[in-house]
Amino acid sequence: MWLVIKLGGSLLFNINGELHLDLIDKWLDVLIDLTQYSKIIVVVGGGILARRYIVWGRRLNLTEFECDELGIHVSRLNAYLLLAALKQRIKATDLRVCGSIPTTPRELYGLRNSYDIIFVGGFIPGQSTIGVAAEAAEASQAKLLAIATDVKGIFDKDPKKYPDAKKLDEIPIESLIEMFLKRDEHAGTYALFDIQALKLIKRSKVTTIVFDGRDPENAREIILAFLRGNTEFVKRTATIIIT
Ligand code: UTP
C-alpha cells in the first residue's frame, strides 16, 4: 500500500527563506513512523526559494518554461535535502530508502516496488508539485494523497485574506475543479491546486485530504485516523476531497 504525502514548500522555509529546521526534524520523525503502516512517496515543494529563483529568472527575461524549470530544480533540491537528512537518521534500520530523486512519473513507477520511501520534486513545466503528487498517487494506486500545507484545509474563501473564512470538512472534486478553472496559472503562482492535478485526482479517484502541516504530530494523527477509517476525526481536523 502506498501513501503519497505532499510537503508544501511553505513548511520548509520561514518568510526570510531560512530553513525550518525544527519542523523538518519533526516531519522526518513522522515520516519514519508512518513507514510502519505504509510505503510512502514524499513530494516536496519549492517554497520561497523556488519563487525567488523565478523572480530572478523573470528579471533576466527567461520564458515561463524556463522559470518553471527553475522551480523544478529547486523542488528537487529540497527533496534531496530531506532524503539525505532522513538517510542520516535511519542508518541502523532496514528501511529501503530510494537514494535518488526520480524525475519523471515513468521513473517513479519503475522504482516503486524496490523501496519503502521515495522522495520527489517537480516533474515537468506547466504544473506545480501538487500535479506531481497527483501523478505519483495515480502511478502507485495510492490509498491516500495527503497534502500538508500551511492552513487547516480548504476554505470557502482565502483564509489568509478573510478572517471569517470557514474550513470545509469535505468538498466534491467537481466543485474544486469549477473553482480552479477560473484561475490564471504562471510559474511560481500555481495555487493550492492546479487544474491538471485536480483532473488526475478525479480520474484516479484517490482520496485526498488537505491539512495543516505546521504541526507534524497532528498531521500524523490525521493520516493515521484516515488509515484506521476514522473519517469523522479527519473531517474535523482537515478537508476531505470526495472523488
Ligand atoms: P511548487 O509546487 O513548490 O510550487 O513548485 P509552489 O506554488 O511554490 O508550492 P509550495 O508552496 O512550494 O508547495 C515551484 C514551482 O516550480 C515549477 C512551477 O513554476 C512551480 O510554481 N514546477 C514545479 C513545475 O513547473 N513543474 C513541476 O512539476 C513542479
What does this structure look like?
The protein has 243 residues and is an alpha/beta fold. The chain has one domain (2-242): Acetylglutamate kinase-like (Carbamate kinase), CATH 3.40.1160.10. 47% of the residues lie in helices and 14% in strands. The protein has ten helices and seven strands. The protein has helices spanning 9-12, 21-34, 47-59, 64-89, 105-111, 129-140, 173-181, 195-204, 216-227, 231-237, and strands spanning 2-7, 39-44, 117-120, 144-149, 170-172, 208-212, 239-242. A seven-stranded mixed sheet has the order 3-2-1-4-6-7-5, with helices on both faces. It is globular, with a radius of gyration of 17 Å. The two termini are 19 Å apart. Residues 8-10, 45-47, 50-51, 68, 71-72, 75, 122-129, 131-132, 187-188, 190 line the site of uridine 5'-triphosphate.
Topology:
Elements: E1 2-7, H1 9-12, H2 21-34, E2 39-44, H3 47-59, H4 64-89, H5 105-111, E3 117-120, H6 129-140, E4 144-149, E5 170-172, H7 173-181, H8 195-204, E6 208-212, H9 216-227, H10 231-237, E7 239-242
Parallel strand pairs: 1-2, 1-4, 2-3, 4-6, 5-7
Antiparallel strand pairs: 6-7
Helix pairs in contact: 2-9, 3-4, 5-6, 6-8, 7-8, 9-10
Q: Give me the side-by-side strand order of the main sheet.
A: 3-2-1-4-6-7-5
Mean pLDDT: 93
CATH superfamily, by name, is: Acetylglutamate kinase-like
| CATH topology-level fold name | Carbamate kinase
**CATH architecture name:** 3-Layer(aba) Sandwich
What are the segments in which pLDDT stays under 50 over at least 5 consecutive residues? none
Q: What is the distance, rounded to the nearest whole angstrom, between the alpha carbons of the first and last residues?
A: 19 Å
Count helical runs: 10
Largest sheet, in brief, is: 7 strands, mixed
CATH class: Alpha Beta
Number of structural domains = 1
